[in-house]
Design goal:
Immunoglobulin-like; alpha+beta; flat; Adhesion_dom_sf; two-stranded antiparallel sheet
Length: 166
């Protein structure tokens, strides 16, 4: 027993003189998780939730002559649609969807457009959203119904963006 006590004492003394060793911090970062559970017959594809639409460059002479740029198609993909088990509230199955676009950065008036809020950029221009048939989308108001394909797991709702004030 005496030998074991000497070994234990030697171990304790050696631990007193041991410098702490830590792994070097090789960088750090954060991971944020965001999501929600919704009661809806379809989901919006995750790449379409926060979407950036590139309108390109438009010359002032083109805007002054045509009052708008060329239209840019915008697809909104609906995925994982469960139309078979859906209900429209009246006992029927959901077969159509309407979409509402809105923004705090819209112009006022009967036909609002998305206002350009960039500092130091062009003034007197904005972005107008249009349905596939090129009828104006009134911000804050639901679009006309878009048919959902019951046999597909994905539906594209197509919209157009124009920049200009008319």
């Amino acid at each position: 027993m005496f030998k074991g006590q000497k070994t234990l004492a030697a171990l304790a003394v050696s631990l007193l003189f041991t410098a702490p060793v830590y792994a070097a911090d090789e960088g750090s970062g954060e991971i944020h998780f965001k999501g929600e559970v919704i009661e809806a017959p379809c989901e919006i594809h995750q790449d379409d939730i926060d979407k950036e639409v590139e309108l390109g460059q438009v010359t002032t002479s083109h805007i002054n002559q045509s009052h708008h740029s060329d239209a840019v198609a915008v697809d909104l993909r609906l995925v994982n649609c469960d139309l078979e088990n859906s209900s429209n509230g009246s006992g029927g199955k959901i077969s159509k969807v309407a979409v509402t676009f809105d923004s705090s950065a819209k112009t006022t008036g009967a036909d609002p457009i998305l206002n350009n809020t960039s500092t130091g950029e062009a003034t007197g221009v904005g972005v107008r959203l249009m349905n596939k048939d090129q009828s104006n989308i009134v911000l804050g108001t639901a679009t006309p119904d878009i048919d959902l394909a019951p046999d597909l797991q994905r539906t594209n709702a197509e919209f157009l963006c124009l920049d200009g004030t008319n």
